[in-house]
């Protein structure tokens, strides 16, 4: 099976674009949550859980990316003949 480096390169570029787009999101939650009567207790619990979930996903994705890169750097390159 031949490696499709071009396809993999496109996926990596798309991943980098997605990461950059996420990083550019403005920190818009802060001003919203400080408005009086912003939410009910139930909505607050839902929103709080969503923030916890996002934080966990970001931390997991960051750690996975670090390990994937670390592993990729340890793979020896070879020339296919």
Describe this structure as you would to a colleague.
With 81 residues, the protein is mainly α. Helices cover 72% and strands 0% of the residues. It is built from three helices and no strands. The protein is elongated, with a radius of gyration of 20 Å. 0% of the residues are buried.
Using only C-alpha atoms, the radius of gyration works out to 20 Å
Shape: elongated
Query: Which stretches are low in confidence, meaning pLDDT under 50 for 5 or more residues running?
Result: none
- Elements, N to C (H/E): HHH
Biggest sheet record: none
| Count of DSSP-assigned helices | 3
Helix/strand structural class: mainly alpha
Global mean pLDDT: 88
Assess the beta-strand content as a share of residues.
under 5%
Which bin fits the share of residues in helices? over 70%
Give the N-to-C terminal Cα separation: 14 Å
Count the E strands.
0
Compact summary:
This protein is an all-alpha fold and 81 residues long. 72% of the residues lie in helices and 0% in strands. The protein has 3 helices and no strands.
């Amino acid at each position: 099976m031949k490696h499709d480096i071009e396809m993999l390169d496109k996926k990596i570029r798309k991943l980098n674009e997605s990461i950059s787009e996420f990083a550019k999101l403005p920190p818009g939650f802060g001003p919203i949550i400080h408005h009086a009567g912003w939410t009910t207790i139930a909505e607050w619990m839902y929103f709080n859980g969503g923030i916890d979930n996002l934080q966990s996903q970001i931390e997991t994705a960051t750690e996975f990316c670090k390990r994937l890169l670390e592993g990729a750097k340890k793979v020896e390159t070879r020339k296919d003949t």
